[in-house]
Write a structure and sequence with these properties.
alpha+beta
């Protein structure tokens, strides 16, 4: 064997080993419960505010079940009893479109402080501007959204507003989100 051929063989073997390790790591992350738990722990660590997720079940490919979720940021507090999400496998090949086959959320409590009262401005001073043009780089198809038991609390002494059940389908494309409720 020539020296050149031996060098090419070693480099090829190293590339194959690195690619194999990368594929195995991605498969572990997406197809195992321990991989999903690891990814959720990383998300909790880097999320803004204080995020807590007590229980993780399932996989990213087969459907993820999260339980006892809490998030606090400044004076806003959100608690979720259970969240179940299943994303279509097409996301592995097309990162510009996410197919959410199922998103079920149960037991949501959102609490935020009562805003300070602001005296109304005279009608002559009110200027209506256009909403900001927010464009999503990712299109999202939402096929089955179900939320149950949503409670919104504005201030400590306010009467909570409760939504028992909400179901919808929709598609987020660029800057529009039409929902069928």
């Amino acid at each position: 064997m020539t020296r050149r051929f031996l060098w090419l063989r070693r480099v090829s073997l190293a590339v194959i080993v690195v690619l194999g390790i990368a594929v195995a790591a991605i498969a572990w992350l997406l197809a195992t419960t321990s991989g999903a738990r690891f990814a959720v722990r990383q998300a909790v660590e880097y999320a803004p505010g204080q995020l807590r997720i007590d229980d993780v079940g399932g996989t990213f490919l087969g459907g993820l079940e999260l339980s006892d979720i809490g998030w606090v940021d400044n004076d806003i507090k959100v608690d979720v009893t259970r969240l179940s999400i299943k994303v279509g496998r097409g996301v592995l090949w097309n990162w510009r479109r996410i197919d959410v086959e199922r998103l079920h959320i149960d037991g949501v409590v959102v609490a935020f402080p009562k805003p300070e009262p602001v005296p109304p401005a005279p009608l002559a001073d009110i200027v209506l501007g256009a909403l900001p043009d927010i464009r999503s780089p990712i299109a999202v198809d939402l096929w089955d959204l179900q939320t149950t038991n949503i409670t919104i609390i504005e201030g400590a002494d306010a009467t909570p507003m409760t939504i028992r059940e909400l179901s919808a389908v929709g598609q987020l494309s660029r800057s529009t989100l039409p929902l069928a409720i």
